Amino acid sequence: MKRIAQWSNRALFGAAALAAKTWPLAARIFPETLEIDDNQSLWVAQTPDYRPNPPLQKPISCDLAIIGGGFTGVSTAYHFSRRYPQKRVVLLEAKTLANGASGRNGGMLLNWVTDPLAYSSDEMVQRIYQTTHAGIQTILDIIKRHQLNVSHRLDGTVHVITHPDRVEAARQEAAYYNRLDIPVQFLEGDALKPYIELEGVYAAMIDPNSGQLNGAQLVRELRPVLEAQGVAIYEQTPVIRIEEGREITLRTPQAEVRAKAIVLATNGYTGKLGYFRDALFPLHSHVFATEALSPEQLNNIGWQQLAGYEDDLDRIAYSTLTREGHIVFGGGSNASYAYLFRNRTAYPNTPHSAQSSFTAMRKTMSDYLPRSADIPLAHRWTGTLGITLRRNNLMGVTGEHRNVYYALGYCGHGVTLANMAGMVLTDLYSGDDERWRGLPFYMPQKPIYDPIPPEPFRWLGYQLFTRLTGKSPRTPMAEGLH
Ligand SMILES: Cc1cc2nc3c(=O)[nH]c(=O)nc-3n(C[C@H](O)[C@H](O)[C@H](O)COP(=O)(O)OP(=O)(O)OC[C@H]3O[C@@H](n4cnc5c(N)ncnc54)[C@H](O)[C@@H]3O)c2cc1C
Hints:
Blueprint: H1 2-19, H2 23-29, H3 42-45, E1 60-67, H4 71-83, E2 89-92, E3 108-109, H5 122-145, E4 152-153, E5 157-161, H6 167-179, E6 185-188, E7 203-207, E8 211-213, H7 215-228, E9 232-234, E10 241-243, E11 248-251, E12 256-264, E13 281-290, H8 295-301, E14 308-311, E15 317-321, E16 327-331, E17 337-338, H9 355-368, E18 377-387, E19 394-398, E20 404-408, H10 414-430, H11 457-469
Parallel strand pairs: 1-2, 1-12, 2-9, 5-14, 12-20
Antiparallel strand pairs: 3-8, 4-8, 5-7, 6-7, 10-11, 11-12, 13-16, 13-17, 13-18, 14-15, 15-16, 19-20
Helix pairs in contact: 1-11, 4-7, 4-10, 5-10
This protein binds flavin-adenine dinucleotide (FAD).
Flavin-adenine dinucleotide (FAD) is lined by residues 34, 36, 67-73, 92-95, 99-102, 104-108, 110, 238-239, 265-269, 273, 285, 287, 318, 330, 383-385, 408, 410, 412-416, 418.
């Protein structure tokens, strides 16, 4: 059975590589438009006083123009303007800051814990963990330095093992991490219960250095900080076209921007600007949040400690608990994810159109926490992830004049990584990027990825792959990576 799955996997990826050769033609037959819908998440509901800045109305010029106002765009504006206070920095956001994935995610603030089979050596496994750990620390430092009102917690998250056959491998994996001074704690049987009483869990690995945060609050609370650092922020300003050159022109509905360099901080939306169309695809992921639960209710459900959990299945179920007592839940089955024909970047009419998905997700949550079945839901929303087949994000610089910077394709790990993007891109711009060199997400010379075919092969391939394997498309080398 495993052989058949491997064979069909290889065959599909072989066909995908062939189909990728039809890009120029397919892009003409199936033109695409940028769609950006309203963000209905719990996270933005917790920023009730936020009002977007007015759109760009007059032509301007600058040293750096950042397209996109999520973690990537805001962290780049933050670190760049601190390093270069004299340079003119502009940030252009199509709708409002944190309208994209940064304000719609599951809130898990994770380290990148990975195994040596995927990344060559023990040193690299150790370095990746230390790098993301430092990245989380930087986020917390920024919150503290500027006294931002961002709900967050850093009391650990847990990766749960849902089949007895995988317990021994998890034990060995945790022991391996511990030998590298990665402080993952292995628990078996009922040992997780004092933290959280999850049904159907046989073992668990707690990373004590991870947690949870409200991304919309982080991004939006940073707006006045950026403005004080001299960054000009225009919201409700979609970039419609990019014309490259030594000086780049960005067309927006009312005015244009001339910039010496730009940053693509548009993650799952990037293909609409004509970049990285074969590198990533927009995947929709549904999420819901309960109303705020009292300590007694949480005790009754069995959630005593820890900021969140995620399981070991391909269609990962992930869940966090906010400081205010909301349980946030996403993933858990094929029904909770969708790829829409022509790379649509909005999921139309959600949450009503995704009723069956939310019902399936609700059941998955109740399977894990049976006493949560009757808790009312307060928020249901859908967000767009940027997914690469290798499950590696891409950060670097491209373009004939080497002035188009990018950081995108974080898959499910962007809360930490996209907030680090600003440091990476600022160092790359400055030419002092040694600390990032060699890391799997940093490719300053040339992005490395497996090409994804255009439509109609893309949509067909996705449907075929998910139905045949029950999994999300990823290249065989990326199996085991989220
Ligand atoms: C449902 C969901 C759950 C997730 N859960 C987690 C999790 O628990 N933990 C984790 O680590 N990661 C998670 N992620 C991933 C993480 O949220 C993202 O990787 C991260 O937020 C990406 O940040 P970004 O700034 O690059 O992109 P986004 O936040 O998507 O920002 C891109 C911005 O660009 C704007 N834009 C797009 N096109 C244009 C244009 N042409 N002109 C101007 N502006 C434009 C958009 O409006 C948007 O605001 C999740 C993602 C989703 C969708």
